[in-house]
Amino acid sequence: MKQMHLAAHFPGVNSTTVWADPRSGSQIDFASFEHLARTAERGKFDFFFLAEGLRLREHNGRIHDLDVVGRPESLTLLNALAAVTDRLGLAATVNATFNEPYELARRLATLDHLSEGRAAWNVVTSSDAFTGENFRRGGYLDRADRYTRAAEFVATARELWDSWTPEGTPRPFAHTGRHFDISGEFTVPRSPQGHPVVIQAGDSDEGREFAASAADVIFTRHGTLEAGQAFYADVKARLAKYGRRPGDLTIMPGVTVVLGDTDAEAQENATEIRHLQVSPQNALLALEQVWGRDLSSYDPDGPLPEIDPDPESDLVQGRVKVADPLAVAAKWRALSEAKGLSIRQTVVEATARQSFIGSPRTVATELEAFVEAEAADGFILVPHLTPGGLDDFVDRVVPLLQERGSFRSEYTGTTLRSHLGHAEPVWKG
Length: 429
Fold this sequence. Notes:
Layout: E1 5-9, H1 30-42, E2 47-50, E3 58-59, E4 62-63, H2 74-82, E5 89-95, H3 101-114, E6 119-124, H4 129-132, H5 146-161, E7 173-176, E8 181-184, E9 197-201, H6 205-214, E10 217-220, H7 225-238, E11 250-259, H8 263-277, H9 280-291, E12 316-317, H10 325-339, H11 343-350, E13 355-358, H12 360-372, E14 378-381, H13 391-396, H14 398-404, H15 416-420
Parallel strand pairs: 1-2, 1-14, 2-5, 5-6, 6-9, 9-10, 10-11, 11-13, 11-14
Antiparallel strand pairs: 3-4, 3-12, 7-8
Helix pairs in contact: 2-3, 3-5, 5-6, 6-7, 9-11, 10-11
């Protein structure tokens, strides 16, 4: 049986988190991060994953409701978590558009040293002027250039990490390219993993190609087994052109899990959670993100709007824009008409993340089936509660996976690369 990989995503400012639940804690209190990280390590997870936002999102000129709690900086938190964990990988989302290779390479190498080889970088990009207003270069980067800059950024960071020999001798570096022209001496010795693990989040064709060329892990989403298999086959097939093998890239979709003592109870729990996630207000907000129009006068329990979306709208700022709002609206209308759904009911069904719902035994079986069918190499779990949303999974599902031999019972290595089964990169001096 294939061994799966598991990671934990700290739920924050997204539509998954249920802040109204009395068990929900703070998104900025260190105790919340520590609780989830310790739970993930108790479950022998590969890594703990933090998202990042460089600006509070706005909706119709107001701060988006889910952003009012703030968004702490990822690497600062992970350096603190390195002191209260021993084996768990620590993955930070850091933007390759609004940072510079030298400074970020230093920060990541420092985390890798402090954690004794557990650092990872989730590479993301941005091209919108709204986010760029927080930076000197605000909004200058064309959308078409975001992955070319990211690719050169990663390559430059790796040159910096390789500027120290494995024996501990520093060497001058120099890089001249389209986006970066730097030279000097790197201040941090080669870290325990050689290079921190690189993660890429994205499903677009550009994102898939970038992951195939430069990433160790790809964080994705897909709604069905068949869609997962198609994505898996496509991305793995791209590796050969870069001289890489299928095992060099680990594919891990983000998923939610809802448990119950029985499958029927789990379905009831899932229905309740989805309706807490999609409140009447959030249903209208989700609809406005597609339509690009102020729909606050509409009844969430009524039908979808008859008017078409505005593709040129700037109603929503700081979120990835819907690529083809007219097509999405048509899909939602077809769903609504076929099932007789209201606005809120349509959003509940149309925006659900890939979920595994059932008793612990059912969920364990379905997770294993995805890995065996080559729809994924593992999963990044996104719980709906902060910080205790992973507790039941670790207590009730992980032991079943361990008994069946599909997931480790103990860590066999000390670095994140060893957890993933990836070799340390060859030094390129």
